[in-house]
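Reading a protein record of the kind used here takes only a little practice. Think of the row as the fold of the chain written in a discrete alphabet. With that in mind, consider the following protein and its fold in token form:
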Amino acid sequence: MPALKAYLAGPDVFLPNAAAQAEAKRTICARHGLIGISPYNPELDFSLPAAVLWRRIYLDDIAMMQGCDLIIANLTPFRGASADAGTLVELGWFLGQGRPAFGYSNTAEDFGARSRAQMRASPDPLPGIEVEDFGLADNLMIQGAVEYGGGVSLHLPPDGRSRAFDALDVFERCAAAAALETRR
């Protein structure tokens, strides 16, 4: 069986060390028999007008996703209590295509606690809006998308301690599980 291509979704493209992070993830994927495809593209011409550039990025990412067999999504909270919005669109795209979806988060604190902390820092627009609190890592639709889309739960820090955003040990556990599940 040829190696499957895994689209490596996540806001990692915004990291100051994005190129090194992408390479490290590709190396981990290769160790588990997967070909990691990162949306990080250093070839982009960032001098293009913003209206042209964002469309090019979008179309490039769609083309990369079309060429992949599965997604491994970095669902670590990004600029808020929940996962990156763009990553969630990509996760939904894979689900819509009927392709396996896997995900991980380097954060151990549950979504309800993070949401309440965010509300303290930036109150809701209306009083009385409820906080979803099922003790899950993120919104139940995200957790469900991963669990039902790939056959395994969202991967979290096994020791219950949050990691740095760019830590790779939880990603490696997720990549290993993705490789195992897609070979069944």
Summary: The chain has a mean pLDDT of 96. The chain has one domain: 4-182.
